[in-house]
Structure formats: structure tokens, C-alpha cells
């Protein structure tokens, strides 16, 4: 097997640098945590500092809150944990703050929590007691659709899969068989080869979208006609249970629920799957108007049988 040749621009997409960070410093709330009975009875002030790894570039491009973390919501979550409990240890409280924010904020991929207990019952002069922890979000399941109807179709799909395997923060979970499909729309063009790939991603959805675009550029895709012929099309179909309506990244993909060229290979690989907001993919496939234009494609190494 020949070595995978990766040009510099694509290498940066496969191996991106560290994400940006949003920090919330000195958030104060009163809680009833401690080993001693009077601490749990009378309470005391706690302070928390939060550092969250977030890709801020999409929000910066559009000046859109929906593309980043709402730090008022983050503050509400941290305060709710401080005011809850009680817990004997601030280690426990710090872990609960981190876990709650990671669960509620899908764009936060890693968080550092520093929890301060400045009134800790220590019989000596001191300025602060603090615990600092780091936690990372679990890899998020996502579904990508690949398609090609121009040039060396099989090679375009195989290279895209190989590049996905080489990308940092992405694990291939499953692959679907390749199908050949009639083109959808009014543009006269050759048949497509389509398939679907399931991944587990440590990247946020926007960094996945950037990678998808980089894979298309690597295949020298040209965007001249909507739904026209293309060397490679890479669409982010679903990212966990995330549902969002954004002009650049709508999730799940706004037409996936009615496209047999996405649903058929997906159903062949994972028949029990569901498309967020639309339900099981089996009934969706049965209703898809283009299902008669889908037929078995070539067997390609690395893709599902």
C-alpha cells in the first residue's frame, strides 16, 4: 500500500492546533459543603474559575452567539452545583461542576475547574484553599456522508476514508457499503457512488465541518452548479443529538431524512440508527422518493460489505 501523501494545507486540517479558550474567573456563590457539621449548617462562600476549550472561530466569523458557549448559562450551571449538595469534599463539588458543564455545553471539549474555599476551617493564617481539576468531553458519535460522481470515484472515496483515519481526534466507528445512485435534481450528470461513515469525534462540530471542506478541497472539488457533478462531497449528517439551524451548519443535515443515497448505506450498516429530530432511519428510507435509484456499488476496501 502506498504512503498517504498529505499536502501542507490538508495536514493542518488533519492535525489542527489547540482550540481557543473561554475563561470565567471569580464566580462566587454560597454553598453548604464541608466535612464539619457547622460548614454544612451555616454555609460559606465558594469561588470558581472556569477555563473551557472552545473553537471560537465560527462565532467570530459570524458574530453569532449560537456558534459559541453562552457563559451566562455556564455560570448558572456552576452556581446551581455550588448551591446544591451538600458534599463533604470540594473535590466532589469541582467534579460535579465539570461534569455538568460538559454534559450541557456540547461545544466545550475540555474544561479546567479551579474551586476556591477561602473560609476553610484551618486554624492557621492562610489566603486560600483550592482544588484544580481537568476533564474532557467524551468522544461524540457523528455521521458523515461521502459521495463522488466525477473522475476516479472509487479513489476519491478511498482517499477520504484514509484521511479520516489519519485525522487527530477522530476514530472510525463503522463504515457502510458503497452504493451507486442516480443523481438527484435537474442537472444532467453521471451516477454517484455514495456511502456513509460513523465516527467518534473529539472535535466539535465546526472543526468537523472544516475537515469536511478540507477533504473536498483535497479532491479539487469545484462548486459551480448547485447539486452538480463533484469529485467529492463530504457532508456532516449528524453530530450526537445536536439540533441547530445555522446558515453554514444545520444539524442534522436538512435533507438527510429524505435522501435514500444517505439512508440506504446507513441502514445497511446500522439499521437501528435514528436521525435526531426525525426518528428511525428505516421508515425514512421507505418513504424516500429516490430509493429506486439506489443500487449496489463496487466493493471497496475499508468500507462495509
Automatic annotation (TrEMBL):
SMART domains for this protein: FolB
SUPFAM superfamilies in alphabetical order: 6-hydroxymethyl-7,8-dihydropterin pyrophosphokinase, HPPK, Tetrahydrobiopterin biosynthesis enzymes-like
Any Pfam family matching the protein: HPPK
Stretches that traverse the bilayer: none
Protein's name in the database: Bifunctional folate synthesis protein
Keyword field: ATP-binding, Folate biosynthesis, Kinase, Lyase, Nucleotide-binding, Transferase
Reactions listed under catalytic activity: 7,8-dihydroneopterin = 6-hydroxymethyl-7,8-dihydropterin + glycolaldehyde; 6-hydroxymethyl-7,8-dihydropterin + ATP = (7,8-dihydropterin-6-yl)methyl diphosphate + AMP + H(+)
Domain 7,8-dihydro-6-hydroxymethylpterin-pyrophosphokinase as annotated: residue spans: 226-237
EC number(s) per entry: 4.1.2.25, 2.7.6.3
Organism of provenance: Brachybacterium kimchii
Annotated metabolic or biological route of this protein: Cofactor biosynthesis; tetrahydrofolate biosynthesis; 2-amino-4-hydroxy-6-hydroxymethyl-7,8-dihydropteridine diphosphate from 7,8-dihydroneopterin triphosphate: step 3/4; Cofactor biosynthesis; tetrahydrofolate biosynthesis; 2-amino-4-hydroxy-6-hydroxymethyl-7,8-dihydropteridine diphosphate from 7,8-dihydroneopterin triphosphate: step 4/4
Entries under InterPro entries matching the protein: Dihydroneopterin_aldolase (IPR006156), FolB_dom (IPR006157), GTP-CH-I_C/QueF (IPR043133), Hppk (IPR000550), Hppk_sf (IPR035907)
Family: Belongs to the DHNA family.
Gene this protein is translated from: folK
Gene Ontology molecular function terms on file: 2-amino-4-hydroxy-6-hydroxymethyldihydropteridine diphosphokinase activity
Function: Catalyzes the conversion of 7,8-dihydroneopterin to 6-hydroxymethyl-7,8-dihydropterin.
Lineage: Bacteria, Bacillati, Actinomycetota, Actinomycetes, Micrococcales
UniProt region (Disordered), positions on chain: 274-305
Amino acid at each position: 500500500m502506498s504512503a498517504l501523501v498529505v499536502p501542507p494545507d490538508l495536514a493542518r486540517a488533519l492535525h489542527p492546533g489547540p482550540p481557543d479558550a473561554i475563561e470565567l474567573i471569580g464566580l462566587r456563590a454560597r454553598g453548604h459543603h464541608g466535612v464539619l457539621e457547622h460548614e454544612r449548617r451555616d454555609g460559606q462562600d465558594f469561588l470558581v474559575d472556569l477555563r473551557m476549550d472552545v473553537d471560537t472561530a465560527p462565532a467570530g466569523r459570524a458574530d453569532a452567539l449560537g456558534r459559541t458557549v453562552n457563559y451566562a448559562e455556564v455560570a448558572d450551571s456552576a452556581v446551581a452545583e455550588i448551591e446544591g449538595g451538600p458534599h463533604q469534599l470540594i473535590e466532589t463539588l469541582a467534579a460535579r461542576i465539570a461534569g455538568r458543564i460538559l454534559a450541557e455545553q456540547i461545544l466545550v471539549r475540555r474544561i479546567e475547574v479551579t474551586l476556591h474555599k477561602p473560609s476553610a476551617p484551618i486554624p492557621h493564617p492562610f489566603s486560600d484553599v483550592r482544588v484544580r481539576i481537568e476533564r474532557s468531553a467524551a468522544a461524540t458519535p457523528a455521521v458523515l456522508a461521502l459521495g463522488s460522481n466525477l473522475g476516479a470515484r472509487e479513489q476519491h472515496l478511498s482517499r477520504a476514508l484514509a484521511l479520516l483515519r489519519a485525522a487527530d481526534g477522530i476514530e472510525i466507528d463503522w463504515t457502510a457499503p458503497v452504493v451507486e445512485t442516480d443523481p438527484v435534481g435537474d442537472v444532467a450528470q453521471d451516477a454517484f457512488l455514495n456511502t456513509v461513515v460513523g465516527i467518534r469525534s473529539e472535535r466539535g462540530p465546526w472543526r468537523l465541518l472544516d475537515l469536511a471542506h478540507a477533504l473536498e478541497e483535497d479532491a479539487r472539488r469545484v462548486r459551480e452548479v448547485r447539486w452538480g457533478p463533484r469529485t467529492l462531497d463530504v457532508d456532516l449528517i449528524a453530530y450526537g443529538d445536536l439540533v441547530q439551524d445555522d446558515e453554514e451548519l444545520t444539524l442534522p443535515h436538512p435533507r438527510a431524512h429524505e435522501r435514500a443515497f444517505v439512508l440506504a448505506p446507513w441502514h445497511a450498516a446500522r439499521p437501528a440508527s435514528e436521525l435526531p429530530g426525525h426518528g428511525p432511519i428505516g421508515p425514512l428510507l421507505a418513504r424516500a422518493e429516490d430509493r429506486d435509484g439506489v443500487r449496489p456499488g463496487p466493493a471497496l476496501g475499508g468500507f462495509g460489505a
